[in-house]
Structures are given as C-alpha cells and as structure tokens.
Protein TolQ (Candidatus Moanibacter tarae), 203 residues
Amino acid sequence: MILIATLWDDIWEVWSAGGLLMVPLFLLALMIYFYALQLLFFFRRADYNDIEESKWMHWIESPSESSGNIGAMIRYSQDGVNTVEDVQSRFDEVKAANIPPIETRIIFLSILVTVAPLMGLLGTVMGMLTTFKGLAMSSGQIIDVVAQGISEALITTQTGLIIAIPGYILVYMLNRRRQEMAAFIGRLESNSLQYFTIKLANS
C-alpha cells in the first residue's frame, strides 16, 4: 500500500511539473492505444493466419463446408456466379470492404503518433518561454520560475517521446498485418479464379 502511495505521489509530481500540456498528451495517448489495440484485436480475430492452405483450398472446392471469415469470403465469391469475371468482381468487393477501412484507420493512427512528439516539442517551447520569463523577474523568484520552466520543457518532451516510440512500433506491426491480410486475399482470389476457370472448362 505504501509503495502504491509513493508511486502515485511520484506520478502526480511529474504530472504537475509537466504543465498544462500533460492533459492533451494523456488524452492523445489514450486515443493512440485505443485505436492500436482495437486493430490488433481485429487482426487477432481474423483467421487467415490460423488455417492451413490445404484446408481453405478444399473450401474453395466445397464452399458449403467452409467457416469463419475465410469461409464467408469464399461463399460470397461463389454464391450465384456464372463466370470467372463474376468471381473477380466479387473479390474486388471483398477487398474494397476489408482493406481500405483498415488502411484508413492505420493512417489516422500514424497521424496521432506523429502528433505526440510534436506536442512534446510544443511543451519544450512553452517551458523555455516560462524560463525566460523567470530570468526577467526579480532575484527572489528567478529560481522557482526557471526550475518550473525547465521541468515543463523536459517532461513534456519526454512524455511525447514515450507515447510516440511504442506507437511507431505498433503502426509498423499493424501495417505488416494489413499487408499479410491483403496478400492472403490475393492468394485466395487467385486460387478461386484458377479453380473456377478449370471448372467452367470441364463443364
């Protein structure tokens, strides 16, 4: 209990020394990690990395036996189609429904992550202005105001970087997962078109 109280006191001391920008930095961090975790859970629920290729190849030939997200794509791509062009059109719709929304959210997340160090830099400028203001005061107040300005400048910069660095790593990971998802849908489309071409040629 004492350890928690001490930790809380330390956090509050840092928060107070950081100045007014600590509030928007905190809100920005919440937004960044909310969006990042939401996207990570989305990719975690997607089953395209968990199912063997032989299994979804079988599903292409027998769509009624398919299940999950992959099964939904396969069934939609083959439901009521008569030509290879129809299958191609269905996969265009599948890609349009899945990839661009994810790209948009990752781009928005990237913007939020980029803002974090810039907001920290703004805190540096504000802290330096406070420092210069302190230097212009009478001797009795100089030390306190200068110390406050330096603390504000350093803490906001540090906080912005602490938020941004893991954020950049998350954006990189999410972009990799998006690329893997797009590549998987491309393979699914290619194999479906190949299967349908052979099927129509033999019919």
Residues 139-202 form the longest helix (64 residues). Residues 2-202 form one domain.
